[in-house]
Amino acid sequence: MSAMQVDTVYPRSTKDEIDGLPYFLRMCHKVRLHAAGELGDDYQANLGKGMDLWTCQLLQVEYQELVHFITASGADDRAALDWCYENGTKPESPIKDWWCSYMRNCGFQDGLSERLLMRVAEAGLQNRPDIHTFFDFIDAEEGR
After folding, report:
1. Model-level pTM greater than 0.85?
2. I need a surface site. Which of 61, 65, 106, 111 has the fewest CB within 10 A?
3. How far, in Å, CA of 115 to CA of 55, rounded?
């Protein structure tokens, strides 16, 4: 992502959770911001990819179907998650636990570590010793 403008509306934090799932709330917020024409250009190319995709894979729903449900019905976050559970699956332990751990720690001493370091450098955040994961990086880049 390039340098953000002061008036950019950021999606909610990756770390915000619903039903013990991180990231889902951010994905729903990005869907709503995009539908309202308020999602920054830097976010457009990755809609439905990366962490959006991984979240939908966990829930066994198609991203575009979830987008349609949220935008057509005006569903809030709880209704969107319930729709996923009804139309896909409600993950339970140990799969849910493994996925949550992966998402929370993605970029920390794993196959994406180099990419994380590159993104941190591109954003000029090398002086932030608190950035260990992509969740940390996203929050830092968005001013949290």
Report:
1. yes
2. 111
3. 20
